[in-house]
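--- STAGE predict ---
source: upstream dedup step, 1 unique chain passed
mode: sequence only
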Amino acid sequence: MKTSMPGPDAARVRRCFKSYDVRGRIGADLVDGVIARIAGAFADVTRARSMVLGHDNRPSSAGFAAVAARALTEAGCEVMDLGLCGTEEVYSATSHFAAGGGMCITASHNPISDNGVKFVGAGSAPLAPDVFAALRERAATADAGPVRAAGRSTDRSAGAREAYVQRMISFVDVQRLRPLRILVNAGHGAAGPTFDAISARLNESGAPLSFVCMNHEPDGRFPRGVPNPLLPENRDETSDSVRACGVDFGVAWDGDFDRCFFFDHTGAFIDGEYAVGLLAGHFLAREAGAAVVHDPRVIWNMQDIVRNLGGRAVQSRTGHVTIKQAMRETCAIYGGEMSAHHYFRDFHACDSGMIPWLVMAEIISAHGPLASLVRERRAAFPSSGEINVVVGDAAAALARVRAAVAGQALCEDTDGLSADFGDWRFNLRASNTEPVMRLNVEARGKPSLVTRGVEMIRPLLV
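--- STAGE serialize ---
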């Protein structure tokens, strides 16, 4: 690429780059020129000769993907186009096709006015921080140069999905499944067609599972609201449907389905840390002594399960790049974040929203209802759930809290501020993508300590 003077698109590029990926408002930040700069810079920085490309179902995504494909081919890349897919399908195809990298045009659970790009490197590895920084600078400061030896774009969606589905099915032992009825809510995001391919393969294999599908057809207008089941206000529809349909459990995904959320047969939402604990226990039962990676927000339930099963708990900073790096460095069998990102060694140490529900079906088949499995863990380690507080100055808010707890708790700074008071603890961190502080409080056996902790910390944030 050749160097150019800064212009409107260069300024937009800098606004769009976040900690790990690209997000921005369509028209104001993300325009065709910005996408072209980013795609060309990605090819240039990685020196890739082949690139996987996919997109979610937002109205702008297919057009942005076409712009990216053109920029990549002009940079000399062979583009393997997956069309409509989930981010994890880009991860899968990047390794399957031995590509030099992959891009997914998606804004995941962001507002409908937004779009973005997620990246993956060769071997489905996350981009190292220095590579991501170089990508940002190259996209902001250089225009496309002469065509290197134009590549071409080919539709590889069928082969990519077939390989992906086969990998998904490998995570479950069909012979251990008992008849289960499962409600799945795609939220009109990208999950529907991919789920259908997995469901068809399960049926061919004789799996005794049946499904109730809701909001299943992709509709980028998101008539039921942007898919983000982590928000309490977005859970009622799934909860009500689980109860109405009398299913064994429910599953809901975000827009690009790299996050998976669970509801028990009563319609109760399962907080992420308890799902992480169940999945960790499942994999440790298969491989005693293995490492399991977790983030620092809510940790005691996870650490207790791992310790009791003879595993090794590895704490990492929050975020998919750092979790994946820790997974690869420790050869961890599984990694989990309370935000419903789940990572698997045998899926390139990447996160997946489809593997968790398949594994959960096997767990429930073997051990009984999800409500019963979670009840004991929730009683032993109650938590507040993530509390988001809008703040004007995150650094000042963190400093106030740090000063207030100094000398009262054991504090550490792996990610934000974690403070351990012995029988309760909290983690407080600034969001990477929003002007909010995220507070999580947990306790050993006493919900009243959770309430007291929230009442102590939350007023200090505003």
